[in-house]
Amino acid sequence: MSGASHFVEVRNLSRRFDVSKPWLNRLIEGGGRRYVEAVRDVSFDVDKGETFALVGESGSGKSTVARMLVGLMSPDRGSVTIDGTSITGEASRSEQRALRRRMQMIFQDPYASLNPRWRVGRIIAEPMLALKVVPSSADAASETARLLTLVGMSAGDMRRYPHEFSGGQRQRIAIARALAARAEFIVCDEPTSALDVSVQAQILNLMRDLQQELGLTYVLISHNLAVVRHMAGRIGVMHAGRLVEVQPARQLFVSPQHDYTRMLIGSVPQMSSAMRRASSTRGAPCP
Ligand SMILES: Nc1ncnc2c1ncn2[C@@H]1O[C@H](COP(=O)(O)OP(=O)(O)O)[C@@H](O)[C@H]1O
Ligand SMILES: [Mg+2]
After folding, report:
1. Which of 138, 162, 203, 228 lies in the 20 to 30 Å Cα band around 245?
2. Phi, psi of 91 (to 5 degrees)
3. Which CATH superfamily, name and number, covers 8-20+34-115+183-267?
4. What phi, psi does 111 have (nearest 5°)?
């Protein structure tokens, strides 16, 4: 693993969860502790400006990897290094804080990740003010207006509440908030899985446009290969906590190495043609 360094370096990540019954139940009913090996020895790199996808069925460990990538959870073993700074180990607290600002996570359910009692303007301005990326609240307001426009909403939406928007619009708001923190590395965990197929394509197109404009680096997580197919440079396939194969996206469909990957590909066709139709109606080029 020596040689040139990558923007994101993930090495031998492992994490298990204790899913034992409570102590008293174990005592009375018998039986020992039980563990789920959620992530086992996962290593990969992501280059700046790249989209690296993680696919795999539900329970394969994708979200656990995502949480460890952005420092929301610490691994039992292994390391995550971003732009030369370890988020899992030795870096100083101020270094880690500086690093946290540069990475954000986008979740499947944008409603759960947006404070329902705050207006959209406050939701987007809050990280800017907290992280002091703008000097004043007036600057935060004008920056919020700019970001809303950037994600295809209008500046006037600042005055509205999350419940007044559709799922797709809420995901746009969540993306604007991630950008408000000046994130460079965004981990998107099933960002479109709760959305209608036509809206999925719009959000994915938006993500791709923003990537090109801002040079963002993505880890895109989905249980659905069709979603990542046109987004990712490389795709990693997760199965039962392990990364069983990593290939350039195009190559993966031509020569999958693992039986499990073949099975995932077998479940794609109808979905991918629906996605292609939906995205071509917007006139965006599809590689
Ligand atoms: N906080 C937790 N406590 C106990 N088990 C967990 C926890 N989080 C995840 N798991 C288990 O770890 C495994 C991987 O989960 P997850 O990373 O959420 O997979 P995915 O995102 O691919 O669906 C699953 O078996 C899940 O039940
Ligand atoms: Mg998940």
Report:
1. 203
2. -60, 150
3. P-loop containing nucleotide triphosphate hydrolases (3.40.50.300)
4. -65, -40
231 lines ligand 1 (CB under 6 A): no
Q: Where are the alpha helices (DSSP H) in 162-267?
A: 167-180, 197-214, 225-229, 249-254, 259-266
Contact predicate 219/66, CB 8 Å = yes
Nearest ligand 1 atom, CA 63? 21
Q: Looking at the predicted structure, is the pLDDT value of residue 111 above 90?
A: no
Higher-scoring residue by pLDDT: 45, 284: 45
Which carries the bigger pLDDT value, residue 39 or residue 270?
A: 39
Note the pTM of the prediction, 2 decimals: 0.89
E strand or H helix at 222: strand 217-222
Residue nearest to atom 3 of ligand 1 (CA): 17
pLDDT at 269: 60
By three-state DSSP, how is residue 270 classified? Answer: helix
> Helix 167-180 vs helix 197-214: angle between axes, to the nearest 10 degrees?
20
Q: Please, are residues 191 and 180 in contact by the beta-carbon 8 Å criterion? A: no
Cβ-based neighbour number of residue 35 at 10 Å: 11
* CA-closest residue to ligand 1 atom 14: 61
**Residue ID of nearest Cα to ligand 1 atom 6:** 17
Residue 185 has pLDDT above 90, yes or no: yes
List phi, psi (to 5°) of 79: -145, 155
92 lines ligand 1 (CB under 6 A): no
pLDDT digits (tens, 9 = 90+) for 239-266: 999 999 999 999 999 899 999 999 888 8
**Please, what is the average pLDDT of the chain?**
89
